[in-house]
UniProtKB/TrEMBL annotation:
Biased composition (Acidic residues): 1-10
Molybdopterin oxidoreductase domain residues: 115-487
Pfam families tied to this protein: Molybdopterin, Molydop_binding
Taxonomy of the source species: Bacteria, Pseudomonadati, Pseudomonadota, Alphaproteobacteria, Rhodospirillales
Annotated stretches, region: Disordered: 1-27
Protein's organism: Azospirillum picis
Domain of life: Bacteria
NCBIfam families cross-referenced by the UniProt entry: Fdhalpha-like
Record keyword Nucleotidyltransferase present: no
Alphabetical list of PANTHER family matching this protein: PROTEIN YDEP, RESPIRATORY NITRATE REDUCTASE
Protein name stated in the entry: Molybdopterin-dependent oxidoreductase alpha subunit
Domain (Molybdopterin dinucleotide-binding) ranges: 651-757
Record-linked InterPro entries: Asp_de-COase-like_dom_sf, MopB_CT_YdeP, MoPterin_dinucl-bd_dom, Mopterin_OxRdtase, Mopterin_OxRdtse_a_bac, Prok_molybdopt-oxidoreductase, YdeP_MopB
Length: 771
């Protein structure tokens, strides 16, 4: 399905390479050359994602019990090599450069300095980071925190830290007195956590790896497997070989969902044979999913009517609907009333195209729905998921082998952090248990999520920010205003492996605390420590790093969290920070005590091949919703973006390249899209370039068109023809983040709507003094 008649030999920028293949090997080799990692890296890659080995720091996709010889992908290898670089960002580097100077550097150049080696304190007089001792840092942080009201403090986490670290971090926040625990998930799959919980009673996906071996169809919405979770291409390739049909809805023709050449298969590599992944690929409009899915539902309901008339076996699953769901009739009535012309206009797809997809869904006995940021990062992201759940409930495609809903999570432990208490929502945490276990009264008021934390930083109500990993200031919307407000805080602390922009925007008192990476050996009093994480499929895996740490002055994240907590809180005999640091098995024992159902015999099960499954009631058709049933939802708005069309207003999709991990830029090669050597591009349909009075290669800017009168601009983007639907344009995250208003987010979950941002094009606008 091509867009508006563009063919493969049109003049748009695109790539003829399959995902995987020699290109992926070349891409790994390039980063090997750049980072010059220690020779131990090959040994580490061999252990990557294997039982007893080390769990990749890149994506959260499931790890099979019987792994491939090399159970890693191009981007997983890049992430490991990135962590094991031989470059070091030492106190000498900070002595040479002021923080103001570094603010002018590109994200890529900052991280290229390599691993942080010493704890550093910001010195205002010289505008430099200067080395400090760990005790000095902890004591200062403790005394600052004791002087600030807990509810004016934010403890952020990026989704990489282990279950052990995350559990202690959340406990620290609650013992200190707040639930202000925003997580990268708030910018990512929070839509899933809120919407799926409401609709099917589970905040996470219902599939396990085995389901991919027994399904007949897989539907993909807004997830870029080839770049962001390439290991998932293996089960997809196997599924295709079994005859499974794969249907994709995505405004961008992503290579990984078109074809795959398995780099681990000598035959495929040598013969150039590749597997076609998607049977059908629909380039719908950004924000067109509710309309498209409603169209599919209309087709399914029409087929059901016809079957009834013919007295054949039903298309839908009436028994399931009667026993397990509520709201079917209201949903049906509303869908019946939706006009096809509205569906076609809003989705950008024809009734006939949607019929082809619906036929596959109707025919398949067992279907899996997979999705990513294309659905969650929209103003009506929760409605996207409600529409998808409607379609999946119709045929009882939840809670049977080979079926289910499978959100593809982002960071390698983002799902797990929620499981062990990193949540601003007190009702999701067993506070009574924590109270009994540790003899204190946990705070019961709702804490700040990412958007609310930003609002309170803007209004000056937040006085302290601790970042457990991540690059908060770069990842959030509204960057310009946020950076200005940030420096008004009293205390900022960043726990990190490499230098990034968030470290350069400082509070009055600021610390940069360097930690071990997951691939490194973590030696404590009782010996080498393992940590654990949870994958997208709710399986928990142990991970044991075995590389020599980048610097002898690093501490583990567990030790850093415990160090800050001990320096802040009054002594409590039940809260044994030193004991926990000495032996992480004790932390796992505490996790087990708080969550006995999911983590029983935790220490014994740490290295279960394939991980241990912590269970999901929705998979058993136990619906932990308000009604005790799964919910159909009558569709409301058909468009997921939060604005009307207007002349000169475009839908901007902020994209990840194949050469980045979130705000970490590995390089300038988006090889699966054929964009090389730059990230400063504005991707547009060739006819849109002409219609807008622009020309290919022209340098333009974008300005926010959100109608709130705030001037938000980014310049210096080269107009590049690309196969996108008319009216939709693309450019990279995080460079485009200054254009997203803070208030522009999914209504229910407050996930920033980074995939359908209203903008205007400003002709001939250069980049102005911006990194
Ligand atoms: N190598 C690598 N791996 C990663 C990451 C990384 O940056 N690099 N990031 C990690 C993280 S934290 C996350 S959350 C995941 C992100 O992984 P994904 O969920 O794949 O996220 P994106 O690449 O932002 O966007 C997904 C897709 O949505 C499509 N899209 C945009 N708008 C729409 C729409 O309206 N409808 C539909 N149907 N599709 C749309 C885009 O074209 C894109 O292909 O990956 C994780 N893994
Ligand atoms: N416009 C737009 N904005 C987006 C998105 C989008 O698609 N479009 N996606 C959103 C999504 S899905 C996410 S998840 C967020 C990501 O937001 P974050 O999770 O905050 O950002 P990352 O870029 O993953 O963080 C990178 C930094 O983490 C640190 N780091 C790496 N490894 C470790 C470690 O082991 N320990 C510690 N302590 N630190 C480490 C390094 O210093 C590195 O610079 O961005 C969101 N923002
Ligand atoms: Mo994410």
């Amino acid at each position: 399905m091509s867009v508006d008649g563009l063919s493969d030999d049109d003049n748009t920028v695109h790539s003829d390479q399959p995902s995987g293949g020699w290109g992926s090997v070349g891409s790994m080799a390039r980063i090997m050359g750049e980072e010059r990692p220690s020779p131990a890296v090959l040994n580490t890659l061999r252990r990557q994602n294997k039982p007893g080995g080390f769990m990749c720091v890149s994506c959260a996709w499931g790890k099979p019990a019987k792994p491939h010889t090399f159970e890693f992908c191009e981007n997983g290898a890049k992430a490991t090599i990135w962590e094991l670089t031989s470059r070091r960002c030492t106190p000498d580097f900070f002595a040479e450069h002021t923080v103001s100077e570094l603010k002018g550097w590109k994200d890529y150049d900052l991280e290229q300095q390599g691993r942080l080696t010493h704890p550093m304190r910001y010195d205002r007089a010289t505008d430099r980071y200067v080395p400090c001792g760990w005790d000095e840092a902890f004591t200062a942080i403790g005394s600052e925190l004791r002087g600030i009201a807990p509810d004016q403090t934010v403890f952020y986490s990026s989704g990489r830290a282990s279950l052990e670290t995350s559990y202690l971090y959340a406990l620290f926040a609650r013992l200190y007195g707040h639930n202000n625990l925003p997580d990268s998930s708030n910018m990512c799959h929070e839509t899933t956590s809120v919407a799926l919980k409401k609709l099917i009673g589970s905040p996470v996906g219902t599939c396990v790896l085995d389901d991919f071996e027994s399904c007949n169809a897989i539907f993909f919405f807004g997830q870029n497997t080839g770049s962001n979770s390439p290991r998932l291409l293996h089960p997809l390739q196997d599924a295709v070989k079994r005859g499974v049909k794969i249907v994709t809805f995505n405004p961008v023709r992503e290579k990984g969902l078109e074809s795959f050449r398995n780099p681990q298969s000598p035959l495929e590599m040598l013969t150039g044979k590749e597997t076609q992944i998607s049977t059908l690929y629909f380039q719908l409009k950004a924000g067109g999913d509710i309309a498209a899915i409603t169209g599919l539902i209309k087709h399914v309901l029409a087929a059901e009517e016809q079957r009834q008339a013919e007295a054949g076996t039903p298309v839908i699953d009436p028994d399931f609907i009667a026993r397990h769901t509520v709201g079917f009739e209201e949903m049906k009535a509303r869908v019946d009333a939706v006009a096809w012309e509205d569906i076609e206009r809003e989705s950008g797809l024809t009734r006939g195209e949607l019929k082809q997809a619906a036929d596959i869904y109707i025919e398949a006995d067992r279907s899996i729905a997979m999705y990513g940021m294309g659905l969650t990062q929209q103003v009506h992201g929760s409605e996207n998921l409600a529409a998808l759940v409607n379609l999946w409930l119709l045929k009882g495609n939840i809670g049977r082998d080979g079926t289910g809903i499978s959100p593809v999570r982002g960071h390698s432990n983002v799902q797990g952090q929620r499981t062990v208490g990193i949540s601003e929502k007190p009702e999701l945490v067993p506070l009574d248990r924590l109270a009994g276990q540790f003899g204190f009264e946990p705070p019961r008021t709702e804490g700040l999520n990412t958007v609310k934390a930003c609002e309170k930083i803007l209004s000056g109500e937040v006085r302290a920010f601790i970042g457990l990993g991540g690059n908060f200031v770069r990842a959030i919307p509204e960057r310009d205003r946020m950076e200005k407000a940030w420096t008004g805080m009293r205390l900022t602390v960043q726990v990190a492996t490499k230098l990034n922009r968030s470290h350069l925007i400082n509070g009055e008192v600021a610390f940069l605390l360097p930690c071990l990476g997951r691939s490194e050996e973590d030696l404590q009093a009782s010996g080498a420590q393992a940590v654990t994480m949870e994958d997208s499929l709710s399986c928990i895996h142990g991970s044991l790093g075995n590389n020599t740490p980048a610097s002898p002055d690093l501490k583990s994240e567990v030790a850093i969290v415990a160090g800050m907590a001990k320096a802040t809180l009054p002594p409590n005999p039940k809260v044994t920070w030193d004991g926990w640091v000495a032996d992480y098995r004790r932390i796992r024992a505490s996790i087990e005590e708080t969550y006995p159902d999911q983590f029983h015999r935790f220490n014994e099960r740490v290295f279960t091949p394939g991980g241990f499954y912590r269970g999901n009631p929705a998979r058993e058709r136990i619906w932990k919703t308000e009604s005790g049933k799964a919910h159909f939802t009558p569709p409301g708005k058909l468009r997921a973006v939060g604005f009307d069309d207007a002349p000169g207003r475009w839908r901007l999709i902020t994209m990840r390249s194949n050469d980045q991990f979130n705000t970490t830029i590995y390089g300038y090669s988006d090889r699966l899209r054929g964009i090389e050597g730059t990230r400063d591009v504005l991707l547009m349909h060739p006819d849109d370039i002409v219609a807008a009075g622009l020309r290919e290669g022209q340098v333009v800017g974008l300005a926010s068109d959100a109608g709130d009168g705030v001037d938000r601009r980014v310049g210096g983007l080269t107009v590049t023809p690309f196969r996108l639907p008319r009216g939709c344009i693309g450019s990279y995250y995080p460079e485009m983040n200054p254009l997203i208003p803070l208030w522009y987010h999914d209504e229910a979950s407050k996930t920033p709507a980074a995939k359908g941002v209203p903008v205007r094009i400003v002709p001939d606008m250069p980049a102005i003094g911006r990194a």
